[in-house]
Amino acid sequence: MKHTEQEMQSIRDEVNQMWKLVLSQLGKAKQSFLNNDMELAREIASREKRVNTFELKIENDCENFIALYSPVAVDLRLALSLIKICITLERIGDFSAGIARHVIDDACDRVDKKVVEELQIEKMFDILAGMLSDSFVALESENTRISGKILAKDAEVDEIYHNAVDVLSNWLAGNPAHIRCGLKLLLVVRKLERIGDHCRNIVEEIVFYVDAKVLKHNGQKSGEEHLVGDYD
Fold it and tell me: How many domains are contained in the chain?
């Protein structure tokens, strides 16, 4: 194996480790939220630093790879894509930690479980875990044939998010004492919707690397669809 191939394989191994960590963070965020498990939520928050460390290390290694070996064509696309993918994984890790902090804050300890079920939060978590796992497989196998399937799941997440606004509006109309909790729940759902967007971004980077096609901004969501600001 050439030295450049060894270097790139080392970077890919780091990305794989980061990916598995972020998947674990997302899975634990689901458990901590649904079970109101503060201990697990604190574990997620403390592990966020590991995700951040991975991002900085991979980004630096990719930049060094480009500077030292001047890759072209597919090798350059891979290095550029891995930089963007690790940044995106870090953002997913941030959102997972944000959901954990919602549990630690304990603003909704007495919320009606039926409301959480109606919001379909557990389903959102499951869809997102599938998107992230499928994207991992797509990169490892360098097979973009499942990209359409993954992107379709993002649309499903969006639909649940938009329905959640109506669900919370109706619930809060009859339970005005829970307004703070309702707003916190909306932020949780919003974080999950944003994770879906980031999974979509990862797929776009994989298609760019494998097929040399740019999907970014194709079929982009309109601004009206974002009911809560993008500053999270």
Answer: 1
In a domain, 232, yes or no: no
Backbone angles phi, psi at 144, to 5 degrees: -100, 10
Q: Taking the mean position of all CA atoms in its chain, how far away is CA 38?
A: 21
List, in order, residues 6 or more apart from 156 with CB less than 8 Å away: 127
Whole-model pTM? Answer: 0.90
| Domain contains 162 | yes
Q: What's the half-sphere exposure (Cβ side, CA atoms, 13 Å) at 88?
A: 24
Q: How do residues 19-51 score in pLDDT, each as one tens digit?
A: 999 999 999 999 999 999 999 999 999 999 999
Q: How many CB atoms within 10 Å of residue 166?
A: 10
- Which helix (H) or strand (E) covers residue 167, if one does? helix 147-174
Q: Exposed e or buried b for every residue in 168-178, given b needs 16+ CB within 10 A?
A: beebbeeeeeb
DSSP string, 180-203: HHHHHHHHHHHHHHHHHHHHHHHH
